[in-house]
């Protein structure tokens, strides 16, 4: 097992009695306070050749929840909230939960919403903050999008952001965003510390791709799979109703194919699932197009799911990046649509291909009930952490328990589908596709080894930078 450092930083001793009246004992029908000495094990796997690691601090994650004593006096608090990056189901649910917990449970009545991500901190952007309270957030979970608005980029203007936080006397910042956003929030927290300010920075991890390390799932992921499954169901009906019908659905997944994989499992109607973690050839006797032709010969219809980051080695890319620093991807969906059409036309085989890209519909969707519950609990636990003076952390669900994860660990590397793991094995069983659709297995093995080495090198560089 890798040696991780899950040590949680805080602003100082907690001496203020919490206004939340809970219990220290069991059996009184009242929830208990959570102690800083309460942990869960991250690595719960047991192997024959490993020793018990109960006392290994690198394996222990601190439990989240309300503490009996808190760091901040609620009457003196001004809190801030912002949402950054692309849209994701559940943003409004999280905003609502944070505001209501601050206001109703702790009595914090000065809560400022920063509009349009990090850009809301800059005077030159011209966006005033919004005063938040239970009244103006009470119903926002019923709509998609972000009540505060969002944007990409701006996290590199750390000095300007901290200047704004200092000028508004903010004591705690709740930053809702993905990998890049949270790396920015760590830079912000480090600058706050450098200035000697007592400001808690707590992140709520938001990435619809479910690609943040350590956590069971990110909020919005379950909703994304639900909506994607509906799109696959519709395209399957089209494919089944046509002569040699082919349904092609492009889903989110820049570097991690969790949405595509989970949708293939959930739909029970997918025949090919193409993800970034598993390379494939387009042409040749073992390539994807030849496999698709065999499928049509046998069943006369096919449904294909492709993650947006799959097959990028087959396309011409520009190496440009967006405002968040993400590499701009070539459009694999349109590329596959055209290549499939050309392939069967060259063989004079009649097909009827339908293509769907439901990405923005999914991102703007209202959450499923279970995702909404998850967002509520993430928001509540983020507030409990900040009130106890925890900082430089995100709230995550690990093995079904809510924990504090240092931002430097959560952003260490990107979580990806393991091509040799149980999830992908079950997806292959569900689709019936070949394990590898390639003509030269050795070249693929070398390519995948390089991808892993690059990921490890990036993680090592980030770890060194965090130190």
Walkthrough of the structure:
The chain is α/β, with parallel strands linked by helices. Strands 3-4-17-16-10-9-6-7-8 form a nine-stranded mixed beta sheet, with helices on both faces. The protein has 13 helices and 17 strands. The model has no long low-confidence stretch (mean pLDDT 92). The longest helix is centred in the C-terminal third of the chain and has 26 residues, at 441-466. Helix 4 (179-194) links the parallel strand 9 (172-177) and strand 10 (200-205). The two termini are 21 Å apart. The protein has helices at 91-105, 134-137, 158-167, 179-194, 221-240, 258-267, 288-299, 332-346, 359-363, 369-387, 407-410, 422-431, 441-466; strands at 9-10, 16-17, 39-41, 60-63, 69-70, 78-83, 110-114, 130-131, 172-177, 200-205, 245-251, 272-274, 301-307, 352-356, 390-391, 393-398, 401-406.
């Amino acid at each position: 097992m890798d040696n991780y450092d899950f040590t949680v930083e805080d602003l100082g001793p907690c001496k203020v009695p919490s206004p939340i009246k809970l219990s220290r004992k069991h059996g009184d029908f009242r929830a208990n306070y959570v102690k800083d000495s309460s942990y869960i094990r991250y690595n719960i796997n047991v192997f024959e050749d490993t020793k018990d690691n109960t006392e290994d601090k690198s394996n222990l994650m601190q439990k989240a929840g309300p503490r009996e004593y808190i760091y901040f006096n609620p009457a003196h608090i001004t809190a801030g909230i912002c949402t950054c990056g692309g849209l994701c189901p559940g943003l409004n649910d999280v905003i609502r939960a944070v505001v209501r917990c601050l206001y109703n449970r702790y009595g914090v009545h000065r809560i400022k919403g920063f509009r349009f991500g990090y850009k809301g901190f800059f005077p030159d952007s011209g966006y005033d903050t919004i005063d938040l309270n239970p009244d103006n957030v009470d119903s926002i979970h019923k709509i998609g999008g972000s009540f505060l608005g969002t944007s990409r980029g701006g996290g590199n203007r750390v000095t300007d952001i901290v200047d704004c936080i200092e000028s508004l006397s903010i004591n705690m910042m709740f930053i809702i965003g993905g990998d890049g956003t949270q790396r920015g929030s760590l830079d912000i927290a480090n600058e706050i510390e450098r200035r000697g300010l007592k400001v808690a920075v707590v992140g709520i991890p938001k990435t619809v791709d479910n690609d943040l390390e350590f956590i069971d799932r990110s909020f919005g992921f379950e909703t994304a799979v639900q909506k994607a499954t509906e799109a696959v169901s519709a395209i399957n009906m089209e494919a089944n109703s046509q002569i040699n019908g082919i349904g092609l659905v492009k889903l989110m997944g820049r570097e991690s194919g969790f949405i595509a994989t989970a949708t293939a499992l959930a739909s029970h109607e997918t025949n090919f699932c193409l993800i970034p973690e598993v390379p494939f050839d387009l042409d040749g006797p073992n390539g994807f197009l030849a496999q698709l032709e065999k499928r049509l010969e046998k069943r006369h219809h096919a449904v294909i799911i492709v993650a947006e980051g799959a097959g990028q080695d087959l396309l011409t890319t520009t190496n440009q990046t967006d405002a968040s620093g993400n590499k701009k991807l070539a459009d694999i969906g349109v590329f596959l649509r055209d290549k499939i059409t050309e392939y069967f036309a060259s063989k004079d085989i009649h097909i009827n291909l339908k293509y769907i890209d439901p990405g923005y519909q999914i991102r703007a969707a209202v959450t499923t009930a279970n995702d909404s519950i998850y967002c509520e609990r993430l928001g509540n636990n983020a507030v409990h952490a900040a009130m106890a003076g925890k900082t430089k952390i995100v709230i995550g669900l690990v093995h079904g328990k809510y924990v504090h994860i240092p931002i430097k660990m959560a952003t260490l590397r990107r979580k990806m589908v393991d091509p040799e793991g149980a999830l992908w094995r079950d997806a292959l069983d569900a689709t019936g596709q070949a394990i590898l659709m390639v003509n030269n297995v050795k070249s693929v093995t070398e390519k995948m080894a390089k991808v892993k080495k690059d990921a490890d090198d990036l993680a090592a560089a980030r770890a060194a930078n965090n130190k």
